[in-house]
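Give me the fold.
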Amino acid sequence: MSKQARQEYLSEIKERYKTANKSEKVQILDQFCFVCKYNRKYVIRLLNKRTSKSQRRKRSGRPRKYNTPVIVHFLKVLLRQTNLICSKRLKASMPLWLDSYESTYCIRIPEPDREKLLQISPATIDRLLSKERKKIGKHGLSTTKSGNLLK
């Protein structure tokens, strides 16, 4: 039996298996195992597997507020420009950088996004920039260089 024929057979049996009672399910499993020469547990997994349409579950909780491309891009640029400072200091310097960002990159930040940027918490900044920080990597524990006079 070809792979395509097994897939067609599986799709035909799946609906019947879902609506069947326990004794009917045993018969369906026995028949499918005999015809396709599959292991019984594997057949159970195949028959109970969700279809691709129902596999995507809706995220629980409220929708993401700060995950707009404008906000994330601004935070990434600001992180690089400020030499990877911590999120608390990044939050404090954000109002100073907003105007220069718009003039330098010629990107106008809409008013709702501007308000969100001013309200964002340092913990949220850390969550949004965690992948970016891993990409850039740490170059040391501090941003200052050792002086020659101390040696």
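Residues 3-51 form one domain.
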